[in-house]
């Protein structure tokens, strides 16, 4: 491949990082005292870590050629179930047990999607629409108000700092690294890409695609449960509004991060760039006190732009790789 073609592919594959840098410099020019402070930069990454886990989950689902619109509801229900156990039903449970439970509950909820899609052959949109509704209303059924008397050790993951850095940032970066290794350094990672790229051919190669889908959706559920834990620590309590509406942010982060809508393409590095971009945008809108309704409209616009960029980048990559 020619050097010029390699440079073009590098730019296309990392375009989200160029967009993020431009967006950051734009806000620096408008409000340098806010965006150049290290503590503010740390806070941007901190607040991005919670939605970031959902972005990673959505990225995995999309790479398999599926999608998951129930991720945010999974995060909310996982947090509510464990919060209810720790704060109401069995208040003597240690916080560290609750941390394990919220991840396990998230994984179990995610495995429902995996069974519906991987074993029963449900369409991913319809399957996760069903679980979206079930998870959402189950959260309200358990408790509509807030649960506040939770163990400090349980809240620590989403609130405490170590050496001036929030623990959730460390968790987020460790998870990102582990997911990178899973996708790029393991046979199972190859199966994930292959299943999304051409499911029929992958089955002919002897890969149990249904099992791949089951494991991937169980993993995305575990990420949702962990996200629910971090949101709980950030808020300091569990409410029925944990992660509400965040699925659109998760989609936007994954898609603008270069994860293909057709499946079989995407990376953790790209998804991480999408997360950072969303964090910068959210911080900028917050600093300028933009009305929540306007921010919601802007998020819809961002999602639309992300889809357009995703499609455009894929077309350009195809032209470079297959010029004739």
Quickly give the structural class. Answer: mainly alpha
Written as H for each helix and E for each strand, in order along the chain, the element string is HHHHHHHHEEHHHHHHH
Helical amount: over 70%
Number of DSSP helices?
15
The strands making up the biggest β-sheet line up spatially as 1-2
Q: What about the largest sheet?
A: 2 strands, antiparallel
- Poorly predicted ranges: none
| Cα-to-Cα separation, first versus last residue | 14 Å
* Average of pLDDT: 91
- Broad shape: globular
Could you give the count of β-strands?
2
Task: Describe the structure in your own words.
Helix content is 77%, strand content 1%. It is mainly alpha-helical. The chain has a two-stranded antiparallel sheet. Strand 1 and strand 2 form a beta hairpin. Helix 1 packs antiparallel against helix 15 (292-321), helix 9 packs across helix 10 (187-197) and helix 13 runs parallel beside helix 15. The longest helix is centred in the C-terminal third of the chain and has 30 residues, at 292-321. The chain starts with a helix and ends with a helix.
Summarize this structure as a short list of keywords or feature phrases.
mainly alpha; 15 helices; 1% strand; 324 residues
Itemize the secondary structure elements and their pairings.
Layout: H1 3-13, H2 15-30, H3 32-35, H4 38-63, H5 71-89, H6 95-119, H7 124-142, H8 152-159, E1 161-162, E2 165-166, H9 167-185, H10 187-197, H11 199-204, H12 209-235, H13 247-256, H14 268-287, H15 292-321
Antiparallel strand pairs: 1-2
Helix pairs in contact: 1-15, 2-14, 4-9, 4-12, 4-13, 4-14, 5-6, 5-7, 5-12, 6-7, 6-8, 6-12, 8-12, 9-10, 10-12, 13-14, 13-15
């Amino acid at each position: 491949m020619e050097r010029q073609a390699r440079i073009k592919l590098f730019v296309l594959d990392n375009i989200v990082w160029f967009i993020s840098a431009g967006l950051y410099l734009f806000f620096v020019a408008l409000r340098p005292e806010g965006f150049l402070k290290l503590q503010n930069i740390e806070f941007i990454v901190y607040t991005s870590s919670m939605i970031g886990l959902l972005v990673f989950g959505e990225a995995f689902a999309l790479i398999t050629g599926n999608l998951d619109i129930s991720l945010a509801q999974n995060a909310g229900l996982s947090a509510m179930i464990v919060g209810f156990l720790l704060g109401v039903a069995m208040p003597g449970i240690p916080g560290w047990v609750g941390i394990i439970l919220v991840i396990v509950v998230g994984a179990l909820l995610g495995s429902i999607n995996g069974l519906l899609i991987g074993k029963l052959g449900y369409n991913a949109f319809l399957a996760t629409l069903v679980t979206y509704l079930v998870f959402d209303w189950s959260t309200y059924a358990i408790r509509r108000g807030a649960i506040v008397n939770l163990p400090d050790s349980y809240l620590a993951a989403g609130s405490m700092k170590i050496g001036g850095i929030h623990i959730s940032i460390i968790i987020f970066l460790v998870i990102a690294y582990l997911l990178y290794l899973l996708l790029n350094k393991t046979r199972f990672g190859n199966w994930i890409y292959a299943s999304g790229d051409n499911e029929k051919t992958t089955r002919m190669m002897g890969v149990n695609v249904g099992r791949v889908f089951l494991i991937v959706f169980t993993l995305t559920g575990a990420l949702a449960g962990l996200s629910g834990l971090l949101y709980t620590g950030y808020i300091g309590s569990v409410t029925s509004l944990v992660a509400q509406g965040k699925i659109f942010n998760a989609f936007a982060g994954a898609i603008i991060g270069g994860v293909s809508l057709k499946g079989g393409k995407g990376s953790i590095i790209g998804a991480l760039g999408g997360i950072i971009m969303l964090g910068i945008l959210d911080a900028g809108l917050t600093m300028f006190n933009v009305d929540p309704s306007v921010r919601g409209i802007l998020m819809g616009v961002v999602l639309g732009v992300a889809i357009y960029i995703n499609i455009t980048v894929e077309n350009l990559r195809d032209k470079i790789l297959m010029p004739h």
